[in-house]
Amino acid sequence: MLERFKVPHEDEVLVPADSLRGTVAAIFQKVGVPRRDAEEGADVLVATDLRGVETHGVSNMLRSYVQAYKEGRLNPRPNWHIVRESPAAATVDADGGLGLILGKRTMGLAMEKAKAVGVGAVTMFNSGHMGAVGHFAMLAAREDMVGMCSVATGAGIVPTFAAEPRFGTNPISIAAPARKEAPVLFDAATSAIAGNKIGLAARVGANLLPGWISELDGTPIMEEMPVRERGQYYQLPLGGTREQGSHKGYGFALMVEILGSLLSGSLPGMLIGAGMGTLSRSYFAAYDISAFTDLDTFKDTMDQMLQKLRETKPAPGHDRVLYPGLSEYEAELDRKAHGIPLHKEVIQWFNDTTSEFSLPRLKTL
Amino acid sequence: MLERFKVPHEDEVLVPADSLRGTVAAIFQKVGVPRRDAEEGADVLVATDLRGVETHGVSNMLRSYVQAYKEGRLNPRPNWHIVRESPAAATVDADGGLGLILGKRTMGLAMEKAKAVGVGAVTMFNSGHMGAVGHFAMLAAREDMVGMCSVATGAGIVPTFAAEPRFGTNPISIAAPARKEAPVLFDAATSAIAGNKIGLAARVGANLLPGWISELDGTPIMEEMPVRERGQYYQLPLGGTREQGSHKGYGFALMVEILGSLLSGSLPGMLIGAGMGTLSRSYFAAYDISAFTDLDTFKDTMDQMLQKLRETKPAPGHDRVLYPGLSEYEAELDRKAHGIPLHKEVIQWFNDTTSEFSLPRLKTL
């Protein structure tokens, strides 16, 4: 994550992961989520914060989930069920449940299929927010599989040359295991930046950079500027402008619609007039590595490749070359040992919420 | 394709597709490729030119293939064979054959698996150049499937913050059928621009734009400039700079390595010191739409979505909004009727080559 998005040191409060997990699970239960689902939701959120992905951890997401449960826009006790199935494929109806909580079960189905026939691909429709989709890709990587997960949601991104928004930020993720190196976990919005980064930039007082947002007539804004109010901009696809490859960001966003929305028999966001509350359509895939090649060879080659990337000579002005998942892995080690930094404003929200629900206060360090 | 890459009108010669296909197949046979394979190779190349994708059609590619066959770097009679297989997965050894010719057979295997169990994913190693990978994704779309194909090849792209190149341009493609609208065909290098575009820019005298290439120390070049000589630059990932999302282009390139190189049990380009002649590792996937949802619903929704995109209000200075595959579909209709424009310098190469091989001259319009 760019420095500009990080919580300023003077505003941060350190929280131990266990304490955060317990409080989040308790809050989920207070809005009607059964205990095991509440624990799963807390686990995904805190795992995301442990990896340093603040945009999709508790700070940005939990309050919107709580609000959605309170307003009846999320179903706390969904009837997750398979609507179509074959040995390598399935489509699941999430019945309005939170995707973040149901993702593990859906990826589990893809992994079962991969174990049986080599590959499993499962689409899920009618779910609430998914959180960081890379979390689900990683579930497969932990079981010696390659995992992928993407989600189509919202409609705030303008296609190349367009004056009207048509796509969500539609992130794509892939995870793969190594032996000594950190597992690869690539998880990226197909827009120039994740939607949540704009909220995060507003909270930490950071500017937006050229090529991230457009005017309301679709013209890319090519200068740095403070965050505008919601409704005063659209987001641009990865690439920003046609010359810099925005048609590729646009194409990847469309790929996510095809795999998630279309294959699950759903409408894409642009056809349902999507706002923030719209349900999402997602895609989960698992590849059993040993169905393709020797697992040990795979892991050895992963180690060699990742070491080579990590040891690549950096360009002037940079300390080192990363691979996707490396800095998040390092953040996880650090935060497990020293706590998760939350913005003091987030702590205030926790205090208000635990007070409202008559729960014990969140423990901080 | 950006205007800057198009053949200038005064330099173009129109060639009928049938004539081009016949001459290309005859040339392939002269370098040792059996008739049916030669026809398949000609078919893929000409289909690519018909769609207006000059970078991967006869102009840029055929001469390098001929050269590679002549120098023994391509096997004209490869023993394509499956090395590992399960109901939804397989890995294929291409035995040094041209990927462009073998891709149909490999995608065919993925499609067979998809018909049987819902999804098929096949990796192929040890092949020569694949041409435009979207061609193979489209084979699945024609059979009411979603098709994907990607290829890992070469090592001329610098990762984000790196001073040394580690990846090929590693394109990813997806194709999906509609009913009345043109099928979606997205096919894009995960680098800022395709490698072949640099050769094309040199031939048509176009400048390279900011964010496309780097200095030899990895620093992104952020001004427009003429094409440099090979060896005087590296290519940048999609995004160009970290701020504009080059870590995402880098991540997509790595995804292609994992699906193609690692899953097929091969080494990525960065571990084999890849040059232009290096064999490539590819990934083919087919999703049987009816294994996930109702096929008619899928196609109707595709039509609605693509019409909505096509009719989206354009931003100032633009005529219309495209979707991936639309302008290529229009080019195909036009070129089937009026011929394929080739640069006069390419016609000269054909004349030299048919003369060398004692073949009839390429017929032009």
What does this structure look like?
The structure is a homodimer of 365-residue chains. Chain A has 365 residues and is α+β, with helices and mostly antiparallel strands. Chain A has a single domain, classed as 2-Layer Sandwich (Ribosomal Protein S8, Chain: A, domain 1). Helices cover 39% and strands 16% of the residues of chain A. Chain A is built from 11 helices and 11 strands. Chain A has helices spanning 17-30, 35-50, 58-70, 99-117, 134-141, 195-204, 246-262, 289-292, 295-310, 326-338, 344-356, and strands at 12-15, 81-86, 89-93, 119-127, 145-152, 172-176, 184-188, 213-214, 234-235, 280-288, 340-343. In chain A, the strands form 3 sheets. Chain A has a 7-stranded mixed sheet with strand order 2-3-4-10-5-6-7. In chain A, strands 1-11 form a two-stranded antiparallel sheet. In chain A, strands 8-9 form a two-stranded antiparallel ribbon. In chain A, a hairpin with a 2-residue loop joins strand 2 (81-86) and strand 3 (89-93). In chain A, helix 2 (35-50) packs across helix 4. Chain A is globular and about 50 Å long. In chain A, 59% of the residues are buried.
